[in-house]
Amino acid sequence: MFWGVLIGFLLGGVFGYSLLFDVDPDFLKDTYTEMAIGIGIGVATGTVIFLIGAGVVSAMDYMRKRKTS
Fold first, then answer.
1. Which carries the bigger pLDDT value, residue 2 or residue 46?
2. What is the torsion angle, in degrees rounded to the nearest 10, for the CA atoms of residue 39, residue 42, residue 46 and residue 49?
3. Which 3 state secondary structure label does DSSP give 25?
4. pTM (2 d.p.)
5. Using CA atoms, how far apart are residues 44 and 48, in angstroms rounded to an integer?
6. What is the DSSP letter of 58?
7. Which letter does DSSP use for residue 26 in this model?
């Protein structure tokens, strides 16, 4: 749900900005390019955060198992 809300904000921002400030003939191509860049940044950021979190949890679990054995 969290990512859905973020994607909704992204779409609203891109289309809102494009509607207010872009009147080019390449409007749709530029809009999709902006969306692709934003989605790529979002996916990359989410992946990095997930991998860091998974690494921390894995290290904590490893240390807990190591201490009790």
1. 46
2. 160
3. coil
4. 0.54
5. 6
6. H
7. T
State the burial class of residue 35 (Cβ atoms within 10 Å of its Cβ: 0-12, 13-18, 19+). Answer: middle
> Which pLDDT score, from 0 to 100, does residue 67 have?
73
| Residue 29 per-residue DSSP state | H
Helices (H), the chain: 2-21, 27-68
The span from the CA of 30 to the CA of 22, in Å, is: 9
5-53 per-position pLDDT tens digit: 777 777 777 777 766 665 667 777 887 888 889 888 888 998 999 999 9
Residue 43 tokens read as: 């996916």
